[in-house]
Design brief:
The chain folds into four domains: 181 residues, Multidrug efflux transporter AcrB transmembrane fold (Up-down Bundle); 76 residues, Alpha-Beta Plaits (2-Layer Sandwich), CATH 3.30.70.260; 82 residues, Eukaryotic phosphomannomutase, cap domain (Hypothetical Protein, Haloacid Dehalogenase-like Hydrolase, Chain: A, domain 2), CATH 3.30.1240; 155 residues, Gyrase A, domain 2 (2-Layer Sandwich), CATH 3.30.1360. By secondary structure, the chain is of the alpha+beta class. 48% of the residues lie in helices and 27% in strands. It has a four-stranded antiparallel sheet, sandwiched between helices. A four-stranded antiparallel sheet has the order 11-12-6-22. The chain has a four-stranded antiparallel sheet with strand order 7-8-10-9. Keywords: Cell membrane, Membrane, Protein transport, Translocation, Transmembrane, Transmembrane helix, Transport.
Length: 616
């Protein structure tokens, strides 16, 4: 019989609609405005007394509290209104000390029964949910200096292997200089070094005592080092952001030496800054012997006790770049430690260094590049100057009991939080050069709420115009198309929520475009039905022919648009990808609703029944 679906097809359509409703429902529960209290260091905790003082202070200011959720290193205060957020933030900040950071946040309010089904609202982008925007600058001079230090260590080893004595090593800008006892030693050294290090321009220089060989990096090599530093830092920052679990973050290069990081939904800038901007790295060095020349050693303090120092070799065995994985654990005394796995090169170097130095001490050096800002007067105006500096401290100094390989552990850490963050930084990879924050912007949830309100209004207006047009143009069949359009919107929202896609303002534009395009298929079907009716075809046959014969045109039109959306997604970034995702999903859901759902409605209402006149 014409225009009748088998039972399984009706059940399939009903199942898809019900699932779509369930997974679209969480988006009807708006996030609660909240104030986030978190430890600035990562290891401080709030006690009941502090929370009670905060509750009383907010009560005196007539700011209603929904509830307070305690967290491992802070608390989340849910408020009844977004208008109270800024006021509450100021009050809470006055109740805690500098060990805590107070930030605006949004907290999910999805019912427990929906969460048990894995249903959650759509992820919102930076422009809708708010978040943090960082601009970081890569220290190119430090990148070159670090590469020269690595080369200096390798050259010293090559000279020792060749039994050529040297007196001193200096790094000045892009130049690495070695001083030798005589010009004859310098000539031998130049012959050895130039074969292994072709990226230098060599020059002989006079010295007060002895002879100096100056090696300057070529411009091509300098550019290569700088490009590598930015690209490696990009990779490392992406890994760190992924460890934070932020949905759809943006990490991209900007200009020759800058990187932009956007973290939607993150209002706790202290935690984000501590992980993203951390420049920590590790160096493993042998302790110096008593008879080692001062030029080959360096005295460093212990990180947790500045009064204690140790004299170490300048040569580095391995750095954090050789770490392939890192995890947190505890020693037999319950103190935190980091378990380290090295890559093949790191394991070989570590084994070689420890195998011949059993009984000698080895230090783990923690290196952190920092920035301090000072205000100076220039031309009568106060100008902020940024000074970059490096802190080096010994985490542990232990005696080598046996040859080490690819696995060992680091102890001497202050807290489990510090061990966790160190393991995270080592897992995500070390930075090829220090990075410094040059700009920081927080987009508050209130601004995101305004953007969401405008986006919803645009969807409502677009949908109302389409609904009105279809009702006026196609009457009863227009009502069928509008029902299918509403189901299409529900399914699209459910698909975005299920896939964890991030909705941005361009994504909302994609939804509005989808609503307009969704009825195109119905227009083609209905116009085809009209043509068949004008050709005096029976009503049931005309409906059947309209759906069957319009399918090819509908498929061709949508597949070309889908291909364009796929191309946009593959070559686009950030907002362009968000637009492409919503457009692609919208095409798929509109094909389903316009062809199957609308036809199911028509089949259930008039399919197989005698119809004298068709309102279309």
């Amino acid at each position: 019989m014409l225009n009748r679906y088998p039972l399984w097809k009706y059940l399939l359509i009903l199942f898809v609609i019900v699932v779509g409703l369930i997974y679209a429902l969480p988006n009807l529960y708006p996030e609660d405005p909240a104030v986030q209290i978190s430890s600035a260091r990562g290891d401080a905790t709030l006690d009941d007394g502090q929370l009670e003082r905060i509750r009383n202070a907010l009560g005196k200011a007539d700011i209603p509290i929904e509830r307070i959720d305690t967290q491992p290193n802070g608390a989340l205060i849910r408020l009844a209104s977004g208008d109270d957020q800024l006021k509450a933030r100021q009050i809470v900040a006055g109740q805690v000390n500098d060990d805590y950071t107070v930030a605006l946040n949004l907290a999910e309010s999805t019912p427990a029964w929906l969460e048990s089904l894995g249903a959650s609202p759509m992820n919102l982008g930076l422009d809708l949910r708010g978040g943090v925007h960082f601009a970081l600058e890569v220290d190119m001079d430090a990148a070159i200096e670090q590469r020269l230090q690595v080369n200096a260590s390798a050259i010293r080893e090559a000279l020792r292997d060749a039994r050529i004595r040297y007196r001193d090593t200096q790094i000045d800008g892009r130049t690495l200089s070695f001083t030798f006892a005589s010009a004859e030693d310098r000539a031998k050294a130049r012959d050895v070094i130039s074969r292994q290090f072709p990226d230098f321009q060599y020059a002989d220089q006079a010295a007060e005592r002895g002879a100096t060989l100056a090696m300057t990096l070529t411009p091509k090599k300098v550019q290569e080092i700088q490009d590598y530093a930015v690209e490696q830092n990009l990779t490392t920052l992406r890994n760190r952001v992924n460890e934070l679990g932020v949905a759809e973050p943006l990490v991209q290069r900007q200009g020759p030496n800058r990187i932009v990081v956007e973290l939607p939904g993150v209002q706790d800038t202290a935690a984000a800054k501590r992980v993203v901007g951390a420049t920590a790295n590790l160096e493993f060095r042998l302790a110096a012997r008593p008879d080692t020349p001062d030029s080959q050693t360096e005295t460093l303090p212990f990180r947790n006790d500045q009064q204690r120092t140790a004299r170490l070799m300048r040569d580095v065995i391995i750095t954090g770049e050789n770490v392939s994985s890192a995890s947190v654990g505890f020693d037999q005394n319950g103190r935190p430690q980091v378990n380290i796995n090295l890559d093949g090169t790191g394991g070989t170097l570590m084994n070689r260094a420890t195998r011949s130095n059993i009984g000698r001490s080895m230090a783990v050096v923690y290196i952190d590049n920092k920035t301090r800002t000072r205000t100076v007067m220039e031309n009568g105006k106060a100008v902020e100057k940024r000074d970059n500096y490096t802190e080096r401290g010994i985490i542990s100094l232990a005696t080598i009991q046996s040859a080490l390989g690819n696995r060992f552990r680091i102890t001497g850490l202050d807290s489990p939080t510090e061990a966790k963050e160190l393991a995270l930084l080592l897992r995500s990879g070390s930075l090829a050069a220090p990075i410094y924050f040059v700009a920081e912007r927080t987009i508050g949830p209130s601004l995101g709420a305004k953007n969401i309100e405008r986006g919803i209004h645009s969807v409502e207006i677009g949908m109302l115009l389409v609904v009105a047009f279809m009702l006026i143009r196609y009457r009863a069949f227009g009502l069928v198309a509008n029902l299918a359009l509403g189901i299409n919107l529900v399914l699209l929202v459910a698909a975005l929520s299920l896939l964890g896609a991030t909705l941005t303002l361009p994504g909302i534009a994609g939804i509005v475009l989808t609503l307009g395009m969704a009825v195109d298929a119905n227009v083609l079907i209905y116009e085809r039905i009209r043509e068949e009716l004008r050709a005096k075809m029976p009503i049931q046959q005309a409906i059947h022919a309209g759906y069957e014969r319009a399918f090819t045109s509908i498929f061709d039109g949508n597949i070309t648009t889908l291909l364009v959306a796929v191309i946009l997604f593959s070559i686009g970034t950030g907002p362009v990808k968000g637009f492409a995702v919503t457009l692609s999903l919208g095409i798929l859901t509109s094909m389903f609703t316009a062809i199957m759902v609308s036809r199911a409605i028509v089949n259930l209402t008039i399919g197989g029944k005698p119809v004298k006149k068709l309102w279309i």
